[in-house]
Every structure is written in structure tokens, then in C-alpha cells.
Amino acid sequence: MTTKRAARREDGFSCVRCRAPVPAAAWGTKNRNHCPRCLWSRHVDDEIGDRRSACAQGMEPIAVAARPDGEWAIIHRCTGCGHLRSNRIAGDDDERALLALALRPMASPAFPLDELR
Ligand SMILES: [Zn+2]
Ligand SMILES: [Zn+2]
């Protein structure tokens, strides 16, 4: 069963959120773990790449983090168990979806911006 699931993932998977078919190969990543269109992932790993988690719930992209080398990572939070993970972006991730995610706190500030003077 584990083998079957691993084999299927090598051929890609359907997005847990938007159902888009996601090919396994992507420029700039060896280990595709999220949908390039809506950026959702799925909780399949306990440790990165091991595919051993029994959770299998969707992981919502909640933030973008910039690493010291300038590379972006998406912070995913599991809708089933709350697990947090950071994942490198892939070369074909939707740029507008990434920007919308990065700008989300700016779109709903937690304090009045007109007091910043
Ligand atoms: Zn998707
Ligand atoms: Zn989970």
C-alpha cells in the first residue's frame, strides 16, 4: 500500500483544494508538495519526503517566508491537525497566488495604518 501511494505520487497528484492535476516534475524542485495554482498542500509526511503521515488532510498556505538567500518558502498549516511546515516555492508556482499570500497581512492590518507617521 505504501509502495502504491509512492508510485502514484511520482506521476503527480490531484490538488486537494482545487482538483487541478499536478505533475510530479517541476522546475526548481525535486520534491513537489503543493499545487502550483492555489498553493495548497497535503499532510502526507512526518519528516520531509517520508510520506508516512496518516493525517492526509489538506494543508492551507498561510504565509510566505523569505529565507536569508532570498528564496521564498510557503508556510503551510494542516487543516486536520494544525501541523506547520515550510516548503520551498517551485518554479511554476502561480506568481499572483504567491503575491496575494505574501500581501495578506497588509490587506487586513491588525492596527490602523494611518497612525504610522
Ligand atoms: Zn490547487
Ligand atoms: Zn495533519
How would you briefly describe this protein structure?
With 117 residues, the protein is of the alpha+beta class. It is built from 3 helices and 6 strands, in the order αββββββαα.
What features would you describe in this structure?
This protein is α+β, with helices and mostly antiparallel strands. It has one domain. 18% of the residues lie in helices and 23% in strands. The chain is built from 3 helices and 6 strands; from the N terminus they run αββββββαα. The strands form 2 sheets. A 4-stranded antiparallel sheet has the order 3-4-5-6, with helices on one face. Strands 1-2 form a two-stranded antiparallel ribbon. The radius of gyration is 16 Å and the shape is globular. The protein starts with a helix and ends in a 10-residue tail after the last helix. Mean pLDDT is 86; it is low at 1-9. It binds zinc ion (2 copies). One zinc ion binds at residues 43, 55, 57, 78, 80-81, 83.
Write the layout of secondary structure elements.
Elements: H1 2-10, E1 13-14, E2 21-22, E3 41-42, E4 58-66, E5 72-78, E6 84-88, H2 95-102, H3 104-107
Antiparallel strand pairs: 1-2, 3-4, 4-5, 5-6
Bound molecules: zinc ion (2 copies).
Strand residue content: 15-25%
Number of strands: 6
* Helix/strand/pairing category: alpha+beta
Give the domain tally.
1
What is the overall silhouette? globular
SSE string, helices as H and strands as E: HEEEEEEHH
- For the termini, the CA-CA separation is 60 Å
Looking across the biggest beta sheet, what order are the strands in? 3-4-5-6
The overall pLDDT, averaged over residues, is 86
Count up the helices. Answer: 3
